[in-house]
Amino acid sequence: YPSITKVFELNLLSVLGTLVFALLLGYVSAYFPARKISKMDPVESLRYE
């Protein structure tokens, strides 16, 4: 029977690089909308509730 132990070969650098990229992407995609909302007047945002 064929062996499937070497189907995926991951090294530490590619795993860490992917993790850092995902964290940076999450940070950037959350930072700008939060910054925009933080500069908004609370009464103005509650007006549409």
Write the layout of secondary structure elements.
Layout: H1 12-38, H2 42-46
Organism: Citrobacter telavivensis
Transmembrane segments: 12-32
Protein name: ABC transporter permease
Explained architecture:
The protein has 49 residues and is an all-alpha fold. It has one domain (12-46). Helix content is 65%, strand content 0%. It has helices at residues 12-38, 42-46. The protein starts with 11 loop residues before the first helix and ends with a helix. This is ABC transporter permease. The chain crosses the membrane at residues 12-32. Keywords: Membrane, Transmembrane, Transmembrane helix.
Element order, helices and strands?
Answer: HH
For the termini, the CA-CA separation is 63 Å
Cα-atom Rg, whole angstroms? 22 Å
State the shape.
elongated
- Estimate nothing, just give the exact number of structural domains: 1
Low-confidence stretches: none
Number of contiguous helices: 2
- Residue share in helix: 55-70%
Overall pLDDT score: 87
| Biggest sheet details | none
Strand element count: 0
Strand content: under 5%
Protein name: ABC transporter permease
Keywords: Membrane, Transmembrane, Transmembrane helix
Transmembrane segments: 12-32
Organism: Citrobacter telavivensis
Tags for this entry?
49 residues, mainly alpha, elongated, ABC transporter permease, transmembrane, membrane, transmembrane helix
